[in-house]
Amino acid sequence: MIESTVTATAPPFSFNLWREPWIRVTRLDGQAAELGIGACLAEAHMLYALHDPSPLVVAGIHRLLTAILQAIYAPESLDEIEDLLTAEHFDPARLDAFAAQYAERFDLFHPTAPFLQTGDVPLDGWRKPEKAKKGESQKTGIAWVEPKPVAPLFAEVPGTTYRAHFHHITDEDHRMCPACCARGLVTIPAFASSGGAGIRPSINGIPPIYVLPAAKSLFQSLALSLASPGYQPQTIDERRWESALWNCDTIIKRDGTMPAVGYLESLTFPARRVRLYPHAGQERCTQCGALSKITVRNMLYEMGHHRDVSAGVWDDPFVAFRHPGKRGKRDPAELLPVRPQAGKALWREYTGLLLTSQDAEELRPKIIRQIGRLIDRGLLNDMPFVLFRCIGLRTDGKAKVFEWLDEALEAPPRLLVDPDGALVVEDALRRAGDAEQVLNFVFNLHFRPEREQGKQIKKDLVRFKTLRDRMQTTFWERLAPEFHQLIVAAADPAQRTMEERAWADSVVRIGGATFTEIADQVGDRADALRARVEAQAACRRQLYAKRKEWFGE
Ligand SMILES: [Zn+2]
Q: Given CA atoms 115, 393, 40, 92 in this order, what sign does their dihedral have?
């Protein structure tokens, strides 16, 4: 029964990710296409970017392609990255050599060495073994595990525990084509989060924001993602340098602790022990709607590998960090990855995510530090902006997923290498934060009916809280276009000082106008009217006082 799938002749199930199309891309002319890994890398200079309805898939594929290129090129220095950028395409001979050696390991349904899955479970592992003694399969000696529906491969598809009522499909009804399965699988290394007892997150813990270079072509974006030795995680184990998805052990252990991790394997870290169970017969994929001769309904899906937590935080080169403590009381072991925050616009993290700081230590992603060194060498200076695609998944730190984040941040190349310019941006953001505090303070002081009138006004309390939230959101939304102007000016020493004042004026103006508008919605009762007029005046007064304070006037 199982023997037939292991014979040397062509296996009945095969979907090789190197050759079969599954990666969605946009070409430079705007056309959409689906490609295998081999074509995607060979044509990368003619492609604009990865494109997928799910940004998590984009980040997952970006990391997979980066791992492959990192293995092929293994740049020893910035010179080598510069040479590659100058070549303007990936070397077909090197891609072919890699494929000749490893392409077989990219088969989704390989009988014993399946891509990003465990090879010790047969393809028909969904079938409960006959004559099994206490759940032991005689064939493999591995305890048989009840198959799970394929839905959990996608964070946005409600799974077993968190099925939404409006989602009119049950877990058992999902049928996924091999391409969709692959797209789901590659999100696991970067985004697997905690999920109930014994289910731990992947190598970066609770998913952080991944900052990915997004340049003129997919080639350039990927070339800029290669890390020379000084810009790789300090936490890698050099002895595992060669170790990667395509040459490592074919077995993913259940809840296996990894005391040491190499860089290549970190990019495709098998945080889940998965085995997709393929079924033959033409069916429509419930994820993408395509007809497929092979579909997957269920799979083995359980806790896979995790990195030994005592080893500290993994300093992924695409992740920014922050210190939880105050300056001077910083413990490197306490570094925290920058993660998405509820209701906080991404550009407010601009300095932490992209810029060099005044401190001796840099906490922005290592890959951006390396891009900074390339800019110092005169590269990328022909571009008005360097773009970074920031992708994240906001969770409650456990199994609950709230939303994903997919936004681009742009930076004039010069700003990435100029600590003085960074300081201007940092000050600007801090001042906007000061102004927001003024708005909140005045709002709370003047519109707090619940304090005086007891519990009867509970409804008002809720309404005002909503108004206050809207005030904060509106304030930051209106500042966003001004921020774009600020970063352009911050990159230019001649414009900086004037722009600092212009920004402060905008902050005061927008803060005052936003407060006035929101206060107008508090209500028209006589007491509210009076509170409103007083509050609006107080807000304006305090904002002007802040402005004086900023410039020591
Ligand atoms: Zn599909």
A: negative
φ, ψ dihedrals at 442, nearest 5°: -65, -40
Instruction: Identify the three-state secondary structure at position 408.
Output: strand
Number of other CB atoms surrounding residue 502 within 10 Å: 15
Q: What's the CA gap between 527 and 102, in Å, rounded?
A: 75
CB 125 within 8 Å of CB 140 = no
In angstroms, the first-to-last Cα distance of the chain is 85
* Span 476-520, pLDDT tens digits: 999 999 999 999 999 999 999 999 999 999 999 999 999 999 998
Q: Could you identify the residue written with the tokens 């990003």?
A: 116
How far, in Å, is the centroid of ligand 1 from the Cα of 432?
Answer: 45
The burial of 31, by beta-carbon neighbours within 10 Å (0-12 exposed, 13-18 middle, 19 or more buried), is given as exposed
Residue labelled with tokens 């340098």: 241
Place of tokens 């789901």: 184
CA 287 – ligand 1 centroid, Å: 5
Nearest residue to 189 (alpha-carbon basis) of 317, 57, 19:
57
Asked whether 300 and 273 are in contact (CB, 8 A), the reply is yes
Please give the Cα distance from 272 to 267 (Å, whole number).
Answer: 14
DSSP 16: B
Residue ranges of the alpha helices (H) in 193-327? 218-223, 263-267
pLDDT in tens, 306-359: 998 788 899 999 999 988 766 556 666 678 999 999 888 999 999 999 998 766
Give the residue carrying structure tokens 């199930």. Answer: 13
The pLDDT score that the predictor gives to residue 521 is 87
How far does residue 177's CA lie from ligand 1's centre (Å)?
Answer: 4
Helices marked H in 103-251 — which ranges?
A: 178-185, 188-191, 218-223
Asked if residue 203 lies in contact with residue 315, where contact means CB atoms within 8 angstroms, the answer is no
Domain 420-550 belongs to what topology?
Topoisomerase I; Chain A, domain 4 (1.10.132)
Tell me the C-alpha distance between 86 and 90, whole Å.
11
182 CA to centre of ligand 1 in angstroms: 9
Q: Please, are residues 363 and 332 in contact by the beta-carbon 8 Å criterion?
A: no
Structure tokens at 164: 């939404």
Residue with tokens 């979907």: 15
Q: Coil, helix or strand for 215?
A: coil
Cα 57 to Cα 406: distance, rounded to the nearest angstrom: 11
Q: In what order do the strands lie in the sheet with 272-284?
A: 148-149, 291-303, 272-284
Instruction: Report how far ligand 1's centroid is from the alpha carbon of 174 (Å).
Output: 10
Distance from Cα 180 to the centre of ligand 1, integer Å: 4
| Residue 536 tokens, joined | 């609006």
Domain boundaries, the chain: 420-550
In single-letter form, the type of residue at position 293 comes to: K
Q: Which of 198-207, 271-280, 327-336 shows the lowest per-residue confidence on average (mean pLDDT)? A: 327-336
